[in-house]
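Budget justification aside, the reviewers requested a transparent look at the raw inputs and outputs of the sequence design task funded under Objective 1. We therefore reproduce one unedited record. The lines immediately below are the structure tokens for a 170-residue chain.
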């Protein structure tokens, strides 16, 4: 929106268009007042009287100014304040929609985060910690003792087999 405002050189094209419309309406009311005054003067003065000619020039000047201001607002050639304000209004609507969408998304995200935290608390309460049935690390002294006993038994069996073989050789 700021880039658009910098590009067009207008802070609020909509407000500018409204103010120009107000100026045109003011000029229009001045023209009506001058024409009423001219018509009243024509009742007792001739049409070529300097006062009436001055009023005609003022009315012509106001008509020219009204035409200029209306051309700034609306024109068939394009690139008018009317087009600029219409584009600005569309951009403002887009910005409003984006802001609303962002606020809705943030709100939904926060709601879901809160629900996730509540669910995690429930899971933690449902699954209380228990002692394991088997230790994770083996007991070293027990393992070493069993290993030594197994080796001694194997050595004894090996000696017994060696003795049986010696006895049967003779």
């Amino acid at each position: 929106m700021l880039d658009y405002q910098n590009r067009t050189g207008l802070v609020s094209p909509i407000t500018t268009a409204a103010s120009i419309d107000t100026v045109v309406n003011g000029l229009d009311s001045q023209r009506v007042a001058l024409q009423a005054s001219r018509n009243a003067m024509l009742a007792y003065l001739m049409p070529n009287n300097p006062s009436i000619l001055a009023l005609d020039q003022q009315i012509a000047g106001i008509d020219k100014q009204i035409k200029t201001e209306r051309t700034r607002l609306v024109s068939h050639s394009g690139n008018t304040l009317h087009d600029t304000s219409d584009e600005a209004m569309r951009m403002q609507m887009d910005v409003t929609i984006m802001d609303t969408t962002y606020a809705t998304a943030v709100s939904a995200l926060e709601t879901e985060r809160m629900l996730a935290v509540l669910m995690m608390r429930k899971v933690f309460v449902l699954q209380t910690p228990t002692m394991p049935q088997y230790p994770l690390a083996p007991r070293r002294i027990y393992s070493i003792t069993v290993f030594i006993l197994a080796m001694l038994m194997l050595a004894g069996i090996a000696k017994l087999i060696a003795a049986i073989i010696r006895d049967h050789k003779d």
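The two ends are 112 Å apart (CA to CA). Residues 17 and 58 are 25 Å apart (CA to CA). Computational costs for records of this kind are itemized in the attached budget.
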